[in-house]
Amino acid sequence: QIIRRSFTMESSSTPKGFFAVYVGENLKKKRYLVPVCFLNKPSFQALLRKAEEEFGFDHPTGGLSLPCDEAFFFTVTS
């Protein structure tokens, strides 16, 4: 499995070659670790543009907040 659910909310626990994203509704966001190679995928780039439009570049959680539910996230990343 390429996408990994992270059970810690600490940004220091992100392994090399991955970046953290937060997916879900505000109070129920879950942290996932995504390989950096996903940055080249057009579908993931579209999701990042949507995140930029909705949240800008301010992500105080230490990871990117993606404006989608988990089901859509898994569709984009699979």
Automatic annotation (TrEMBL):
**Statement: the UniProt record of this protein carries the keyword tRNA processing:** no
Coiled coil regions in record: none
Fetch the Pfam families from UniProt. Answer: Auxin_inducible
What are the entry keywords?
Answer: Developmental protein, Growth regulation
InterPro entries to which the protein is assigned, alphabetical:
SAUR_fam (IPR003676)
Family membership noted in the UniProt record: Belongs to the ARG7 family.
Protein name, per record: Auxin-responsive protein SAUR15-like
Q: Which organism is it from?
A: Camelina sativa (False flax)
Lineage, highest ranks first: Eukaryota, Viridiplantae, Streptophyta, Embryophyta, Tracheophyta
